[in-house]
Amino acid sequence: MLPDDERSNYLLVKKTLLDQIEQQPAEVHRIRGELGGGPAAAEYDRELEGVQLGLALQGLGPDGHTASLFPGSPALEERERRAIAVPHDDVERVTMTLPMLSGASQVVFLVVGAGKAKAVARAFAGAPDPATPASLLRSADGETIVLLDRAAAARLDNVG
């Protein structure tokens, strides 16, 4: 996927954050999706060698996915690589693996909207389950923070 593709997370970050700040970061490590999933993942995996994330800012899909870690995906079992290619309906994606993400000092989930309420309850009030990948991601040695609007948190009061 090209960096200017409307589905590109890089394009989203560029438009909503990078283009809005006066002083640009010294480095931006973009996944080069235009190489194709496998080569882009291999390159990013090498780039992440020796890196510990300070912050892993995560979203949550209505199906419980986070990053490109989807329910029941074999990617959830990866323990050696830091980044991998993940085939998906729309495009072959590249994602950081659970060990890489959970190595972050802080894992922060930012979730909004009623359409995410069921997934929020499964991810943050239920037991860890590959059917809800976000339930498997917590900072191993730091802290995990979950920021929700009222709509996304609506089903947490009814969890038993």
Terminal-residue CA separation: 42 Å
Nearest-integer average pLDDT: 92
Which radius of gyration do the C-alpha atoms yield? 16 Å
Low-confidence stretches: none
**Domain module count:** 1
Describe the structure.
With 160 residues, the protein is of the alpha/beta class. It has one domain: Rossmann fold (3-Layer(aba) Sandwich), CATH 3.40.50. The chain is built from 5 helices and 5 strands, in the order H-H-E-E-E-H-E-H-E-H. Strands 1-4-5 form a 3-stranded parallel beta sheet. Strand 4, helix 4 and strand 5 form a beta-alpha-beta unit. The radius of gyration is 16 Å and the shape is globular. The termini are far apart. The model has no long low-confidence stretch (mean pLDDT 92).
Topology, element by element:
Elements lengths: L8 H8 L20 H11 L7 E4 L24 E4 L6 E4 L1 H5 L3 E6 L5 H9 L17 E6 L1 H4 L7
Parallel strand pairs: 1-4, 4-5
Antiparallel strand pairs: 2-3
Key words describing this protein structure:
alpha/beta, 160 residues, 15% strand, globular, Rossmann fold, two-stranded antiparallel sheet
